[in-house]
Amino acid sequence: MKRIVSGITATGNLTLGNYIGSIKNLIKAQNEYEIFMFVADLHGITSPINPSTLRKNVSEQLKTYISCGIDVNKTKLFKQSEIIGHTELFYYLTTISNEGQLKRMTQYKDKSLKSSNKTNHIPLGLLMYPILMAGDILLYNAEGVIVGADQKQHLELTRDLAERLNSRFKLNFNIPEPIIPKIGSKIMALKTPTKKMSKSDDDINETVFLLDDLKIARKKIMSSLTDSENKVYFDEKNKPGVSNLLTIFSAIKEITIEESVEKLKDMDYKKFKESVADVVIELLSNIQNKFNSLTDDDVKSALDKNKLYIQSEADKYINKVTKGFGIR
Ligand code: TYM
Q1: How far is the CA of 219 from the centre of ligand 1 (A)?
Q2: DSSP designation for 35
Q3: DSSP string, 178-212
Q4: How far apart are CA 277 and CA 274, in angstroms?
Q5: Which of 196, 220, 239, 273 is catalytic?
Q6: What is the mean pLDDT of residues 14-28?
């Protein structure tokens, strides 16, 4: 069975973008693939974060994955830091990485600029972040990685590092393929639909969080930015707000953009937004009902389920790398 790895950084509450770009596709893939899915707490500390916030994020994210439909009897769910090997492989990979390639990463450029504006320095962790991510994927020798479009560049680096490992050390790691959804690979911010919806946006009204109060989530969608034309059709360049809402609607309902336009084209913007809000609220409400029924013990037993197997798979590939390097 083909193996897939995916993770979400523990920097905040999960968003509708995370759901559409990643979680939804993992849920669909559960029956076909062997999935390793983790909460990336080590990635969560690459920028300063309050320890109690991090702890809360990790526990809420794990509960939210399960509430969305991640089935722990099928998917190997875990916390990144609990599996020894992520940090170890990260170190080995730094020795075959180039600073120049890391500095060219779009996410690094954005985040380092933000960081130096705020604090006057750039944590080295921000630069190294994609190497840690490459390690997460190669540690399980994944063949595919389910991600949104923003992670494509990081995947390219992972593929480069896998090729470098194979050619320099005579190893045979898979060169992992990105698996990116056709609809919703980049959900945009609600008030500024030219930028990505993000869990760490300074303005919470840009983002629908999966655990948002339902009334607040509806309000966020009703006050999202559209345009003055009052006509519903898809044109990402000239109508980014309307196109983003159409994408959200299509992704959740699992229909094409054309089918959504057909359903919604005769509505004015108020009615259109209400229709989009209705499908979002239905989704959130199902997730939240499940979330409220889960206990911390449920999460603990989910994490315990496959821990030994996950660790043994990680050990297997660490051994290959250390032997390859001549360390063991
Ligand atoms: P993160 O936490 O930024 O995002 C988690 C996943 O959600 C997707 N995503 C989106 N998709 C569509 N529209 C959006 N607005 C949107 N925002 C986020 C992301 O593409 C991602 O798939 N580096 C990763 C976490 C990670 C990882 C890994 C992923 C660490 N190690 C190994 C895969 C494999 C990240 O920061 O994702």
Answers
A1: 26
A2: E
A3: EE--SS-SSPBPSSSTTSB--TT-S-GGG--BTTS
A4: 5
A5: 196
A6: 98
What are the structural domains of the chain? 3-185+296-325 (3.40.50.620), 204-291 (1.10.240.10)
Contact 151 CB / ligand 1 (< 6 Å): yes
pTM score over 0.85: yes
Distance in Å, CA 83 to ligand 1 centroid: 20
pLDDT at 1: 64
DSSP state of 85: T
Residue with tokens 């992670």: 151
Residue partners of 46: CB distance under 8 A and separation at least 6? 123, 125, 126, 128, 129, 132
CA of 76 to the centre of ligand 1 (A): 18
Is 111 one of the annotated active-site residues of the chain? Answer: yes
- Measured CA to CA, the distance from residue 323 to residue 92 in angstroms comes to 12
Is 190 a pocket residue for ligand 1 (Cβ < 6 Å)? no
Asked whether the predicted pLDDT for residue 119 surpasses 90, the reply is no
Active-site hit among 24, 199, 239, 273: 199
56 vs 41: CA distance, rounded Å: 11
